[in-house]
Amino acid sequence: MSKRAEAKLRKSQRVAHHEAGHAVAAMQSGVRLESVTIKPSDETNGAAFVRRGRIPKDPRRLLEIAKTDCFIRLAGPAAERRFSGRWDWMGAGHDLECVSGFAREIAGPDVREQAKFKDFFVRWAGHWVAIPEVWQTIEAVAEALLERETLTASEVKELLMVAS
């Protein structure tokens, strides 16, 4: 295999793990996953499509949704890091941008408090992907993505049940 083909395969594997991390986190958090793909678009290398319900009026419920969203967004980069051994914040720019927005909303203008908020979720996602059963499921979803490029929610759910 040429170095170029090897680099392309490695990138596909990283993207598959990243998107698998999002998909498994969404499913395990009870967020409705529609599909997950590693087909590149003009803006991304892949995507996990989730459907969010209505925005609740109760601020406590809104905070829970924001925390779940932060976790799902950072589960992708955490899975990619576990696979590749490094964080790719350039590739996960949109994920980090959304988490940074939540951090500003919750922590206010204090940059140190915002950093603590983001760090908490980065560590949480990192610990979560290290759970053997979770990692096994992420690996199964990533492998299926490399084979088929796109998975429906039912296909991911089936892999979750098999891996559990």
Q: Concise description?
A:
The protein is mainly alpha-helical and 164 residues long. Helix content is 70%, strand content 9%.
Terminal residue distance: 35 Å
Q: What is the CATH C-level name?
A: Mainly Alpha
Strand arrangement, major sheet: 2-1-3
Largest sheet: 3 strands, antiparallel
* Total domain units: 1
Uncertain spans: none
CATH topology: Methane Monooxygenase Hydroxylase, Chain G, domain 1
Indicate the multimeric state.
single chain
Order of helices and strands: HEEHHHHEH
* Helix count from the secondary structure assignment: 6
Content-based structural category = mainly alpha
Mean pLDDT: 88
Query: What percent of residues adopt helix (DSSP H or I)?
Result: 55-70%
Q: What form results from the Cα inertia axes?
A: globular
Question: What is the architecture at the second tier of CATH?
Answer: Up-down Bundle
Q: What proportion strand?
A: 5-15%
Q: Write the CATH homologous superfamily.
A: Peptidase M41
Q: Would you count the extended β strands for me?
A: 3
Compute the gyration radius: what is it? 16 Å
